[in-house]
Amino acid sequence: MSLIFQKAHLLNPLEHLDLAGSLKVSDDGIIEAVVYGNETLEASPDDRVIDLRGEIVAPGLFDMHCHFREPGQEYKETLESGARAAAAGGFTGVALMPNTKPVIDSPLGVAYIRHHSATLPVDLEVIGAMTVDSKGEHLAPFGKFSSYGVTAVSDDGSAIQNSQIMRLAFEYASNFDLLIIQHCEERSLTMGGIMNEGLFSTKLGLKGIPDVSEAITLSRDLLLMRYLEKHKLHDPLIRPRYHVAHISTKAALDLVRQAKREGLQVTCEVTPHHFTLCDEDLFLAEKKGSYIMKPPLSSKENREALLDAIADGTIDAIATDHAPHALHEKECPPDQASFGIIGLETSVGLTITELVHKGIISMSRAIELLSINPRKIMRLKPILFAVGEEANFSIIDPDIQWSVSASALKSKSANTPFLNRSLKGKACGIFHKGKFIAAGNL
């Protein structure tokens, strides 16, 4: 039996594809036929036909920054519940950060994730730790990571503070073409901080996190990249690759712009909560726990700078930093709340509501940010809508109105500031690993 996705809006920026069409997929998940325009595919008696009525079929969305908590904190999230949340949000793949318990700082941790995710509906890529136990003191085994198919390393949440260790990380990673993903934070400035330093932290009596912390660490890393490219890397084909996680300030964006102009291999991502909310939203919120995150929700000026950078192409990807926490870790005084929120199930809705429908970017640009670019940055296989290719796509209705409900969330946690928020645009299902999964059937 084959599956026919009839009357779709095929949208794949990688192929410059943006038009009506239909897809036929075999029972083993291979694209058998593609037609364009109003032409439909003929179905045999055994085929199943799904009329999409103009809904978007896009290359499978990929979130390159997630935390699924397993192993070690399964009370917050598991590989299974996280994968279910990803599929519900329209993602066919995610990349998992290594700050589990224990930290994924060896191939053993990579093997654990791969073994326990083989039957899940989405791909789970593993990001290895940059240093042993993410303590910033001794480099993790990058070469072994590479031999296990790992393409990126990060000490997410614990930026390397020692410049010599960071230099060695650049040099070692470059030998294996590993992407370095950095959570940019100068911890001597942020220690004990709860929210963005400014008027609203003062009004709330909470210790502030100065936004310059992000740019200081980023500036140090970019200086190291320039130095190594100019003086120390003997093979001109070996160059550092660097990605800024959850960028949140204008100062950091300006540094990325300059680095790109110089030809450095630098990319960056933004989260939906940072381009949607600011520190004033935390100030006004009755329950503040789900507004506590790192980097913190910044000023309105920084949020506007993020929107400008999304529009002008400075920002390369949208990633959720999906960070589940249990109820007691968020429904508490803000200075006791754990940092982070969930985001997989609201990412598409916020992107379309806040960026596409407001005219900041096109739907095609949204798919680049949510699918094409993250896969490219992570060195993953591109997705094509062509006969003989493996079917891997997300189905999106950009016009459906819906409200974020805790009872409907597939994640094990519900720590999101967007509960009860009305959104326009939603993922309706995915096709991956030979299976069609409607969001309502998860």
What would your notes on this structure say?
The chain has 442 residues and is α/β, with parallel strands linked by helices. It has a single domain, classed as Alpha-Beta Barrel (TIM Barrel). 30% of the residues lie in helices and 22% in strands. The chain is built from 13 helices and 18 strands. It has helices at 79-88, 107-117, 142-147, 163-175, 187-190, 199-204, 212-232, 250-261, 272-276, 279-284, 300-312, 347-356, 363-377; strands spanning 3-12, 17-25, 31-36, 48-51, 56-59, 61-66, 91-96, 123-126, 152-154, 179-182, 195-196, 208-209, 241-244, 265-270, 317-318, 393-403, 422-432, 435-438. The longest helix is centred in the middle third of the chain and has 21 residues, at 212-232. The two termini are 22 Å apart. The mean pLDDT is 96.
Descriptive tags:
globular; 5-stranded parallel beta sheet; TIM Barrel; 18 strands; alpha/beta; 442 residues; 13 helices
Let me know the largest β-sheet. 8 strands, mixed
CATH architecture: Alpha-Beta Barrel
DSSP summary: helix tally? 13
Fourth-level CATH superfamily: Metal-dependent hydrolases
Based on DSSP secondary structure assignment, what is the total number of beta strands?
A: 18
Average pLDDT taken over every residue: 96
Secondary-structure-based class equals alpha/beta
Shape: globular
Strand content: 15-25%
Uncertain regions spanning at least 5 consecutive residues: none
The total number of structural domains is 1
Q: Please give the radius of gyration in angstroms.
A: 21 Å
CATH class: Alpha Beta
Helix content: 25-40%
The CATH topology is TIM Barrel
Q: Tell me the span between the first and last alpha carbons.
A: 22 Å
